[in-house]
Amino acid sequence: MKMPWILLTLALVGCSTGSDRLSEFGSQVLITDKLPPIKCRLIGEVYGSHMDQGDQLEAIVKGVRNKLRNQTATRGGNYVRIVTNNTTTYRSKSVVAMSGTAYDCSPEVSGSSSPGVK
User: Fold this and answer.
1) pLDDT of residue 56
2) Which pLDDT score is estimated for 46?
3) What is the longest distance spanned by two Cα atoms in the chain?
């Protein structure tokens, strides 16, 4: 049953706000599919999505990843673990939706050096 997933994805696109450009603080956020270091502080969930409007898929994915990084930075984090990464085609339009978990892994929290950027 694929229809509920498509509707959820389209709803996320409709609720998506903000630019696909990476902010100065967002550029300091590490994005990965790996678990964070053990002493990082959980901040919460972050979401991003984008519907194809003539963009190439690579550019759409990069923009959605930037949204996750920017949201993490805005909430005081510097590490985001991608939890879901979905690309769906609906009526010849590609929709990319990602969710992640944001963490603060700063030295003040973890007692060690920053997890690394990019």
Assistant:
1) 83
2) 98
3) 50
Half-sphere exposure (Cβ direction) of 108: Cα atoms closer than 13 Å? 4
Q: Is the pLDDT of residue 92 over 70?
A: yes
What domains, with CATH codes, occur in the chain? 3-110 (3.30.110.70)
How many residues are there in the chain? Answer: 118
Mean pLDDT across the chain, nearest whole number?
82
Say which range, 7-11, 67-71, 109-113, has the weakest mean pLDDT: 7-11
CA 106 from chain center: how many Å? 19
- Nearest residue to 89 via CA among 46, 47, 66, 60: 60
**Residue 82: C-alpha distances to residues 2, 32, 77 (Å):** 22, 6, 14
Question: At 26, phi and psi to the nearest 5?
Answer: -60, -30
Residue 48 has φ and ψ, to the nearest 5°, of: -155, 145
AA letter at 43: I
**Cα torsion for 105, 109, 111, 112, to the nearest 10°?**
20
